[in-house]
Structure formats: structure tokens, C-alpha cells
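[User] Could I get a sequence and C-alpha cells?

[Assistant]
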Amino acid sequence: MKKANIAIIGGTGIEAISSDIGEPMRIGTPYGLATRIFLGEVGERTVAFLPRHGINHNLPPHRVNYRANVYALHSIGATRIIATNAVGAINPEFKPGDIVVPHDVVDFTRMRHGTFYENAPVTHVDMCEPYCPEIRFTLIKAAQRKGLKAFEKAVFACSEGPRFETPAEIEVYRRLGCDVAGMSTMPEAALARELEICYATACFITNMAAGLDQHLTITEQSEIAKKTAPLLEQLLKDSVIHLPEKRQCHCGQALRYARFKG
């Protein structure tokens, strides 16, 4: 099996990047079959690309097999995952088309398998920095090099989906300090941490969240996604090229003090 130590998990609108990267493969895991993974080269680095919702976008966020996807990337050697997410803006400073690199997250999902550690050893990973600071820094610098408007901090409210949030829910998220709302960063970020994989995401704003806009349609979201996708693809590739060869963050030691020894 070919190996790649950098992976991209592409969200809504980024599926087409697979045609630029290369050959597909399917990987079975103890948690089921992962979404099709594409392997190819970006610069001088081998990269795995996994379209989160499938190449034809046929998987809704609550049906994505997050455990299988993250485990499959781990099995081919991925130690870093750069993700993308289409999100709605709760913070009124954010506008459709903007790029946001979140630093924190609140998990409002209810029905997803959120851990690899269902049994002993009882494992509690540290999530004080849920998104890898090294990848976040690389994404922010890549956005600056590309002249993109990118916000360097945001709290991500992750909801279950597949419906959009209600205005009252968005108001609750706002009062809790959340800046953007989406449906697919969790449990991805937590699962990556449990396997000591660096993980961060570049979000692009597709709409103002419920209550800040009169109505929400997937058509409008798709149009923004199509316009933003080429810029986001360049951001991702630039980030891959400029990631340091060796990790200098603490993500790779996440299990060192996480296991209960009794």
C-alpha cells in the first residue's frame, strides 16, 4: 500500500481536487470502509486526498464514517490532516467568500461515534488546542501569500445536520461565543487527536447563518463554493508545500498522558 504523511480532507465544493491529485483506492478498516482516497503529488510531497462527502457528494454529514476515514488515513502513514469546511457565519464581521481558520470548537453533535477508545485502556485526550497550531499557522501564512482575506481565529459550532440550524439555535451558539456554524469538523478533530495526528481546518463562509439571513438554500451555498473552491485549492497546495518537514507541535504526543492506568 502506498504511503502519504500529509492528507487533505475536502469538504463541500472541494471534491474536484481529486482529479488533480491522482489514483484512487479504497481502504477497509475495523470501523468499516473509508471514503475513496486519492494519492498524488503536491510539489515534492505525496498527499492523500479524501473527499469527506464522497466524490459525487452523496454522503450527508451525519452519515460520514468519520472513524473509518481518519483510521484509513492513519493506516497509510498520515501524521497531518488539513481539512476544509463550508460554514455559515455567526460573527457579523465574517461575510460569504471569506476564509476562516478556527482555533476552537464546540461539539453539538449527538449521534456520531466520537472515539476509537470504547474500552480499556480508558483514554482522555487533551483538547485544549483542538486544532493543530502548526497547521493553523501554515494555513494563515499561505492565505497571506495568496492575498486572501482570512480570519485567524474563530470558534466553530458543529451541529448534527443535515438540516440547517434554526435562528434560535444560532442565537444560542452566538451567546456561547461561537463564530461559525458547520456540520463536519467533529468528531474528525477529536479522532485525529486520538491517533496523534495533527489536524486543522480552513473554513470558507458560504452564507450568513439562520437569523442573520432571511433564508438558506443549498443552491446559494453551492454558488459560493464554486467561486471559492479554486482559491481554496491553491491555499491547500501552498500549505502542503510549506509545512515543516518535522512536526514541532505536541499533537504527536497526545496519548502520552491520556491513558488511565488505575
In short: DSSP finds six helices and 13 strands in the chain.
